[in-house]
């Protein structure tokens, strides 16, 4: 350390982010650095004599620094107030002020508790005319004069105020933490029409600033005291199901909890201006500090879902301009192809009618009128009465919606759906919107001269997806498979394949036997007549 004359000199302040920071694309946090009084050295050091601002401790080299305030400093009234007991402030002959640590040896101002109390006093009494140097988190170093600085978040987001004795270039780390978010789902394949349940969480640090509305406003918040906003964007093939939370009921499965306590202190908007599907606004209250809020909500896979494609749901949190890195999850659905072929491959007039179900046995559905003995339907009646109701047994066939090239499994909002379909000779049909599993193709009728299949065709879809996240490769296989299609064949003629019935052959055989038997009976009768 070399000796030198007492002087002031230039320095700089750099601030890096605190815990849980995520680069989510939001605006960087900005701090205001207020120079409370000047610092001059009588001893200059080549080493960094700056303080560890994060825990309010100070280096022994502070003893080589003298402090002063100009007579016109806006901080004079703050430092000369009776309640300011941390430093002694005396006016010199030239009108300026000499500032020295209070106490017999000045050591007490180096303690964490002492420094923090002083910082809180200064922050509560920042003069209206005081100027500050802005320091952006993770930004370039801000040039400042040597001095004793109060550093606070520009918009009040940082609950931990900091003091810094800046005598040379100093690097600081934010003491406060950031909100964090998560988004989860059972990432797997679904049918169109299935309901997918999502879970989202937001963890609120204990030092988060409480939300405060601007004076006289019911919607606008003070700078740095805004609410947490969760932004959720769903793929267009996912239809959000949810309404604002009700303290008594959770319609459509929409609910929220804080730990084990019911939480209803938020609003939900499905008219967000940033292309989000919906936003959840959560005002920060004291009882939420240090807690994790969990939201559960649902969406239906709709009939616009493309096969082997991730249906993305993305969530990020925002607080006072800071944004978390988006959490992204996916679900997906599959397809298969079938082709109907007849013996005469050139006849495009040949057709067959089918239904698709998840059961090996096809139920066409029916309606039956049930009669009762009285108006209370106490017992059924074997004869018609005036007390009746129609009991409908629905078909177990899967509802389908016609699209270009085939069909898609219908969702709850689709209209004009069908439960049977016609396949034309040689024409392939695509079926989309199915989860992995087993399905059955039932042939209900076919063209004249051709025989129905003797049972349903079993279709098996297997999820062969590999990887996770950005490395996920969504894929599936289908059996049976014939060049990428399920081939369904119908045959004509009296000799039928093993997949058909016994056809007309039995009638020819039985007819021949009857003719022979009749002839034998006739001859026998004639002989008996002559002998008689």
Textual characterization of the structure:
It is a single chain. Helices cover 8% and strands 39% of the residues. With 532 residues, it is mainly beta. Strand 28 and strand 29 form a beta hairpin. The longest helix has 27 residues. The N terminus is likely disordered.
List keywords for this structure.
532 residues; mainly beta; disordered N terminus
Give a quick summary of the entry.
Helix content is 8%, strand content 39%. With 532 residues, the protein is mostly beta strands.
Indicate the topology:
Elements: E1 2-7, E2 10-16, E3 30-44, E4 65-69, H1 76-79, E5 87-91, E6 97-101, H2 112-124, E7 133-136, E8 142-145, E9 147-153, E10 162-166, E11 170-173, E12 180-185, E13 195-203, E14 228-234, E15 238-241, E16 255-258, E17 261-262, E18 267-269, E19 278-282, E20 292-301, E21 311-319, E22 322-323, E23 327-331, E24 334-342, E25 351-357, E26 366-372, E27 387-393, E28 400-403, E29 406-409, E30 421-424, E31 428-434, E32 437-446, E33 457-463, E34 476-479, E35 486-490, H3 505-531
Parallel strand pairs: 2-11, 24-35, 29-31
Antiparallel strand pairs: 1-3, 2-8, 3-4, 3-7, 3-9, 4-6, 5-6, 9-10, 12-13, 13-20, 14-19, 14-21, 15-20, 16-17, 16-20, 18-19, 21-22, 21-23, 24-31, 25-30, 25-32, 26-27, 28-29, 32-33, 33-34
Question: Which structural class best describes the helix and strand composition?
Answer: mainly beta
Percentage of residues in DSSP E strands = 35-45%
Residues in helices, as a percent range: under 10%
The total of beta strands comes to 35
